[in-house]
Amino acid sequence: MADKNYFVHETAVVDDGCEIGEGTKIWHYSHVLKGSKIGKKTVIGQNGSIGPNVTIGNGCKIQNNVSVYTGVTLEDDVFCGPSMVFTNVLTPRAHIERKDEFLPTHVGRGATIGANAVIVCGNKIGKFAMVGAGAVVTRDVPDFALVVGNPAKKIGWVSESGDRLGADLVCPRTKERYRETGGKLEKIA
Predict the structure, then answer these.
(1) Is the pTM of this model over 0.85?
(2) DSSP 8-class letter at 126
(3) For residues 13-29, b (16+ Cβ closer than 10 Å) or e, as one string?
(4) pLDDT tens string 73-95
(5) Burial level of 51, CB count in 10 A (0-12/13-18/19+)?
């Protein structure tokens, strides 16, 4: 790997035909399958499985024991907590092959998915949204939404920095201001 501008641990496997961005690290026992594209400065934790044909943006952090299946797209700066799960078929059966039924799942820029959460395929996680640990996402999650539970329900809003917003919609860390309009949140300053 001395000639590469990314790191692959000696126990990890990267199939031919993958694109790996500069500064990316792929750790112990992970497997990146053919046709997958991983951006710059992304970290794939131990025992990860990526692909085939998956796109992962720049600066993502995919913790240990996470599989990112065909149909899943992660934009830049997405955090996937340990052992969280993406499904790819709504009604799986071991004895019936349903690879033609994979549904797309899109995770927006800067979103966080907590440990052991489940993202049911066909749903979109909005930019900077936060999915609580153990939550089961069965429908789209709006930008900046904080969702928890099974099924996941919105319990509030978070800022770009991941801090929970109060009624004033001002980030306690950065002092950036947000505005809620029609059930959606946007940053205004």
Answers:
(1) yes
(2) P
(3) ebeeebebbeebbbbee
(4) 999 999 999 999 999 999 999 99
(5) buried
